[in-house]
Design brief:
By secondary structure, the chain is mainly alpha-helical. 46% of the residues lie in helices and 4% in strands. The protein contains four helices and two strands; from the N terminus they run ααααββ. It has helices at residues 2-13, 18-31, 37-50, 55-77; strands at residues 81-83, 103-105. This is Geranylgeranyl transferase type-2 subunit alpha. It is an enzyme of class 2 (transferase).
């Protein structure tokens, strides 16, 4: 917690320090990903503005974190439904954690493709389309 506060103080002094911004994001993830979710997303926006050359990497990392948070929320609620619509996702990862999911909503994201591993989710009652507009 003290490291996070120190990094935030440094970020106030150097608002465009990309390493400081990334460290803040990673520390918030390590401390409590759900508590800091909204703040983390704000830091991602700032970091993308400061470091546009890594925008794709940052979008993918953001997607990974959002999926991890959604899985945590699903587990805490003890449900098998995962709503990932309108999250601006660019990649899907950790599909092995979704083996028992019965409903998966991936609509309205920026997914370029759907990973072949999606077919391994045998419990899905209404699987997403295999081809077509993955981002729709």
């Amino acid at each position: 917690q003290s490291e996070l506060e120190s990094c935030k103080e440094l970020q106030e002094l150097e608002p465009e320090n990309k390493w400081c911004l990334l460290t803040i994001i990673l520390l918030m993830r390590a401390l409590d990903p759900l508590l800091y979710e909204k703040e983390t997303l704000q830091y991602f926006q700032t970091l993308k503005a400061v470091d546009p050359m890594r925008a794709t990497y940052l979008d993918d990392l953001r997607s990974k974190f959002l999926l991890e948070n959604s899985v945590l929320k699903m587990e805490y609620a003890e449900v098998r439904v995962l709503h990932l619509a309108h999250k601006d996702l660019t990649v899907l990862c950790h599909l092995e954690q979704l083996l028992l999911v019965t409903h998966l909503d991936l609509s309205h994201n920026r997914l370029r493709t759907l990973p072949p591993a999606l077919a391994a989710l045998r419990c899905l009652e209404d699987p997403p389309p295999r081809t077509g507009a993955a981002g729709q």
